[in-house]
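Standup notes
- HV: blocked on the assembly model, inputs below
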Amino acid sequence: MKRDSTMLLIGVGGAGCTMVRGILSRFGGELRHLLVDTDAASGDDGQPEFLLLGAERLSGRGTGGEIVSARLAAEDSASKLDEFLAGVRLAVVVAGLGGGTGSGATLEIVKHLATHGIVSIVMATTPFAFEGEGRHRNSRGVAAMISDAANATILVPLDHLAGGCDEMAAAMRVGLDTLAAAATMFWRLVETPGYIRLDAERLRRMVQSAGRGRFATVCTGGPGRAERAVEELVRSPTLADGTNQVRSIICGVLAGDDLRLAEIGTVADGLKTAFGGGKCDFELATVNDEQTFRGKLCVVALMFEAPAQQQTQEKEGSRSTRKRKAAEDRRRALIPNSPFSNSAPTIWNDEDLDVPTYLRQNITLEF
Ligand SMILES: Nc1nc2c(ncn2[C@@H]2O[C@H](COP(=O)(O)OP(=O)(O)OP(=O)(O)O)[C@@H](O)[C@H]2O)c(=O)[nH]1
Ligand SMILES: [Mg+2]
């Protein structure tokens, strides 16, 4: 394992560990990584880079879908996690949302990383439609919290990753495989750089305030391959998901020795025009690897919607509007005929000062 890298790949929960194994076998070389799970079975292949979360609390049996148990287990094991973090500056956390561990432990791990100044990017799947409401509830409940805690978050619905599969078994396999293949390409950009580099520190700076993201990869070949790559990316369901304007794009072009400058230009211009409205931060890196990409042109595109700082301000704005609205509703319920019922509340320390103290503090007055 490459211990001196400042970039660490962390797989959380059953699906997260499976994805990391998929990335390792595709990458083929040394890659700094860690598998974490509440289920001892994820470490069964004797990987030294395995951390069992909450061993005393859960006895290595997993959480049975309980997010709270996973959060507590991750908190119990925080100091053990530290043993794997020496020198790490950027962590890529992969998980499947929907169960207990991938959802709950990911949240706590990302918060813990932040206390060490480690920038985190979470790449997680959200459940297939057929998985049932319980798993969707788990996923929805935690996704916003993970987005708040991580520097950048890319959530990919499994339905988008394995949309073309009819059979359930194939869909399950293809879903995680597709994300692992995409993440491997991304890793190659940093670890096996070509003529235009994307080093870990540059990536860290871009990810630091990136916010919500989307992610897609394509591979084409033959004449017009660059144009076709752009067309396929424009049609990609995982990129069509966004709701806001794209603010920054990280684009990787992976090819053999026949990569032409004009092709790089076609891909860069095509993505900037299609997704960034021509004006967004754009970072491009290439990998030239004749053995792996002979005759192919693969493009990995990562797009982020808004700087985290700005998102936070927007969130703060809507949060204070919500708080004010809730205070007004509370006041109407407490003192329905008050002359203040329809005026703006005076909020101090989250308390509505227009409501008498004995009502705010639930004190019963005795006459
Ligand atoms: N495509 C695919 N998705 C999977 C697979 N295993 C899990 N997932 C996805 O990941 C989500 C979480 O499942 P797991 O990773 O098994 O759950 P966990 O994080 O280990 O959580 P607990 O076992 O409940 O503590 C599921 O709801 C699925 O959406 C798999 O083999 N293939
Ligand atoms: Mg599990």
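- HV (later): unblocked. The chain has 14 helices and twelve strands. The chain has a mean pLDDT of 85.
- Next: hand off to the docking folks.
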